[in-house]
Design brief:
- Helix content is about 35%, strand content about 20%.
- The strands form two sheets. The chain has an eight-stranded mixed β-sheet with strand order 6-3-7-2-8-1-10-9, sandwiched between helices. The chain has a two-stranded antiparallel ribbon with strand order 4-5.
- It is of the alpha/beta class.
- It has ten helices and ten strands.
Length: about 280
């Protein structure tokens, strides 16, 4: 049986990818951002997941206003890094566990979560930056150490799914994973955030107090946290802070009672508060 053993929450700031790709991570601005991922890199090496189920959002790279799936599951054999305007990031192509992805698609839809099936898809910084910070520098000639099943969530075009829907989807993903008949260690990522606003009068908004409370409650009060209405994300964490709903998918897929094994928070990276947490199921 496949098992979800741990969850990773992680921001996806594009400039973090640029800092890695251009070799400037030891500059004073970036050094504290990357310092907080040193333990994470050791942890993931040790944990050595076979598969990462990676919940992320696309930023009008693959999807635009012509097609807005709320939840899109990557079922293709592989996913190339997308060109977001400066050429594709020089990182490996993401390889899927296609059989497991197909099984999850079937299980979710029969479990009444009607996801969109993507048999062709590129992936933007929303997916590649969390892999880079967790696994360190990789060139296009390398391979990511784990297979990756991407789940793309719409948080760009109103209406995004509710935190409650995301949390319950996490539970359905867990059922799907546990009904897959192969002995696999699966780690689930919830990505995006933390507080940030990229546009109009409140551009540059960061709310450290709110971010800290979110990280605290993710461990201690996940159900209560999942009930937070969209308007609170917008008001307290900025217009792009609503990316945080994706973390509920990760949390819903874990046990109620988890151990927080690592946390990192740093302001700023670009316009964003960088937040990162690692949660383990106690039995794992
Ligand atoms: C920034 C943050 C994001 O989440 C994003 O998708 C793009 C840019 C930023 O801080 O610059
Ligand atoms: Fe984003």
């Amino acid at each position: 049986m496949a098992r979800i053993t741990a969850g990773v929450g992680c921001s996806h700031v594009p400039a973090i990818g640029v800092a890695m790709d251009t070799g400037i991570t030891d500059q004073p601005y970036w050094q504290p951002v990357f310092k907080g991922f040193e333990k994470s890199r050791e942890w993931i090496k040790e944990k050595n997941p076979d598969v990462i189920f990676l919940v992320y959002n696309d930023h009008c790279t693959v999807f635009d206003a012509s097609c807005i799936p709320t939840f899109a599951l990557g079922c293709a054999a592989e996913f190339a890094p997308a060109d977001e305007g400066w050429g594709p990031r020089p990182v490996p192509v993401v390889k899927n566990h296609q059989k497991m992805a197909s099984h999850i698609a079937q299980s979710l839809i029969l479990d009444e979560f009607d996801i969109t099936i993507m048999n062709e898809m590129e992936v933007d910084h929303g997916l590649t930056v969390p892999l880079s910070v967790m696994y360190g520098d990789k060139t296009p000639e390398d391979e990511w150490p784990a297979l990756v099943i991407p789940l793309c969530v719409n948080v760009v075009q109103y209406p995004a799914p509710t935190g409650n829907r995301c949390y319950n989807l996490g539970k359905a993903i867990r059922r799907a994973v546990e009904s897959f008949d192969e002995d696999l260690n699966v780690v689930i990522f919830g990505t995006g955030g933390m507080s940030h606003q990229l546009q109009y009068k409140r551009a540059g908004l960061i709310n450290q107090e709110w971010d800290t409370a979110f990280l605290d409650r993710l461990t201690s009060d996940p159900v209560g946290l999942s009930q937070m209405p969209h308007v609170e994300y917008l008001r307290e964490a900025g217009s792009e802070g609503v990316e945080m709903v994706m973390w509920h998918v990760m949390r819903g897929a874990l046990d109620d009672d988890v151990t927080e094994v690592h946390r990192h928070y740093h302001v700023p990276a670009s316009n964003t508060a960088v937040g990162h947490i690692i949660l383990e199921n106690k039995a794992s």
